[in-house]
Amino acid sequence: MTRKEVMQELKNYGNETTKKIFINHGAREPFYGVKVQDLKKLVKKIGKDYKLSLELFDSGNSDAMYLAGLIADEKSMTKNDLQKWVKGAYWYMISDYTVPWIAAESDFGEELALEWIESNEEFVASAGWSTLSSLVAIKPDEELNVPHLNNLIDRVINEIHNAQNRVRYAMNGFIIAVGSYVKPLTEKAEGAGKKIGKVHVDMGGTACKVPFAPEYIQKVIKRGSHGRKRKVARC
Question: What residues does each domain of the chain span?
């Protein structure tokens, strides 16, 4: 499919109720408000398409940008592509999902994540922590730098409550991800969650809540998926 054809499909799938919800969460015009389930219908038609994914992300249309992540060819993505994407990720659906998913699946995930978490830009830093969360979800424990992850847990304990809004959410997500996917650090992550306590994030007046890390990790353990890695980061 061409960019023009995809944009027309997105327009056809546009949903005003979904659009209003996304606006409350931080999306801005131009976009149509396409449900993720409808975006996945387009993914089935397109498959992976590196060139098209770049064109869609460059459109600045939130629906197209999210779709770009779903069809991106992670092995073709360059470091410059990912740097451009993170700079264009202006709200959390892109900064906490689209960009981190593809960064984690690329050859540059850890390098970029560690760079991004040092950024003073809220959505760049949140993308960094979210990329780390995706990395621990897909990489075998033996391929992870467990001592460094341990140090990052300590860093979250010390910094989370003074971090920027979406960075707090992503840091909390990192604690949950490590506790859920990295068995050697589960106890450490649960303890960290208890020390941190409730994390307060402005969710834009919506009903969304910030999960309490220890409770979430325990749910993962009870359902029998503790330490079970995912094949891919994106979903």
Answer: 1-73, 87-235
Strands (E), the chain: none
Q: Check if the beta carbon of residue 82 is closer than 8 Å to that of residue 99.
A: yes
The DSSP annotation for 17-63 comes to: HHHHHHHHHT--SS-----HHHHHHHHHHH---HHHHHHHHHT--HH
Walk along the chain (235 residues) in steps of 10 and give the mean pLDDT of each run: 98 96 94 98 98 98 98 98 98 97 98 98 98 98 97 98 98 98 98 97 85 98 97 95
pLDDT at 176: 98
Residue 140: cis peptide before it, omega within 30 degrees of 0:
no
Cβ neighbours of 203 (radius 10 Å):
16
- Residues 6 or more apart whose CB falls under 8 angstroms from that of 219 comprise none
